[in-house]
Amino acid sequence: MLTYIKRSILRGTIQAPASKSSMQRACAAALLNKAETTIVNPGHSNDDKAALRVIQALGASVIEDKSVLKVTGFGVRPGAGAVNCGESGLGIRMFAPIIALSEKPVKVDGEGSLLSRPMDFFDEIFPQLGIRVISNKGKLPLEIQGPLQPKNIVIDGSLSSQFLTGLLFAYAAAGAKDIAIRVNNLKSRPYIDLTLQVLRHFGWKVENRNYEEFYFSGDAMNTPVNRSYTVEGDWSGGAFLLVAGAIAGPVTVKGLDAASTQADKAILQALKDCGAVMTMGEGSMEIGPAGLKAFRFDATDCPDLFPPLVALASYCEGTTVIDGVSRLAHKESNRGLTLQEEFGKMGVAVELDGDRMKVQGGKGVKGAVVHSRHDHRIAMACAVAALRAEGDTTIEEAQAINKSYPDFYDHLQQLGAEVNNKTQLA
């Protein structure tokens, strides 16, 4: 799909999308909760749909009832012996340990960029837990056969916190007692806060010992009762709406919880530091442009903010410095290089210096033909930057947004942006 965006002024109010981080964790908990779970405000991104397919393949019943999902969990009972996590990095890393709760061999596969992302973690850790695992030289597909036997282990948390999320769910469901998972150099700690929050909501208790050790006493376990879980608004997708408001607004964004544990809530600090005008209301925030200035930001624990931060920095006077580039190599694209190249087409200089990114802003953004690189966040970042660019912008393979925020272009249109989509011929 080609998406064409003209220079626009935004006005109005929009509801933030549902958080796929929250939604996918809710799906995992609903599978393991041997009762009915009502999921309120469910997401419908490609990653969300993939999570629902996975839990159905593992034995859960899913019924859509108006604006909620009714999920009946029976524990992990694989049916056909194969699951596909789509392109979801969280999906594969979270569900693999959960799948290993079963003694049945299961083939775990994915699609697109997920096929090239490293999965060595499972080859290293699973044998320690009594799990048979066969991988494709550290890549997908995997063949897993449990049952997982919780033990005291030490893992590396420097690549992703998502592996730990999966182990926390699996250990909890397996009834781990007097056992701890030790973690070295854990990144993206707020995402672990979200995982622990969901586990608590469903009755499991894990003691977080300074993000270095996660201890299972066995005292607080899940009781199979009917529960309800409301999926949070998504700060990752909402960050693009907020940055759009700072560049081309003002706009009001509803549905983002300022008390959320989501890592990407940190976008508020960047917006404050650059001088954007923000007014916080009850369940909403209004944001508009001002004399934006360069800022310094550490995105090590929230690497998904790099794309909206680069769009924001493009309009900030001076050199913005963002730390944490090393977290970008194994995303849907190599996001550091991709941001440098695609924003370079729009006349924005992006310098990569080790773990640091420098964005030269305030020198004008020009419309251009850019490519999503099949990365949802790159497509959205280019779209936001295009809103006040000189000249029109064309985004190739713009449908990449469906991975996390399929309504994004529609929401920009509802706010007054001139956005047109056209089927892209092969």
Short description:
The protein is of the alpha/beta class and 426 residues long. The protein is built from 12 helices and 24 strands. The longest helix has 14 residues, at 235-248.
Using only C-alpha atoms, the radius of gyration works out to 21 Å
Q: Averaged pLDDT, please?
A: 95
| CATH homologous superfamily (4th level) name of the largest domain | Enolpyruvate transferase domain
Helix content: 25-40%
Uncertain runs are none
Structural class: alpha/beta
Query: How is the largest sheet built, in terms of strand order?
Result: 22-23-1-24
Could you name the CATH class of the largest domain? Alpha Beta
CATH topology of the largest domain: UDP-n-acetylglucosamine1-carboxyvinyl-transferase, Chain
Overall structural domain count: 2
Q: How does CATH name the architecture of the largest domain?
A: Alpha-beta prism
Distance between the termini: 10 Å
How many β strands by DSSP?
24
Largest sheet, in brief, is: 4 strands, mixed
Strand content: 15-25%
Number of helices: 12
Shape: globular
Record keyword descriptors for this entry.
UDP-n-acetylglucosamine1-carboxyvinyl-transferase, Chain, four-stranded mixed β-sheet, alpha/beta, 24% strand, 2 domains, 426 residues, single chain
Question: Would you kindly provide a written description of the structure presented here, covering whatever features stand out?
Answer:
This protein has 426 residues and is an alpha/beta fold. The protein folds into two domains: 206 residues, UDP-n-acetylglucosamine1-carboxyvinyl-transferase, Chain (Alpha-beta prism), CATH 3.65.10.10; 211 residues, Enolpyruvate transferase domain (UDP-n-acetylglucosamine1-carboxyvinyl-transferase, Chain). The protein contains twelve helices and 24 strands. The strands form six sheets. It has a four-stranded mixed β-sheet with strand order 22-23-1-24. A four-stranded mixed β-sheet has the order 2-15-17-16. α11 links the parallel β22 and β23. α9 packs parallel to α11. It is globular.
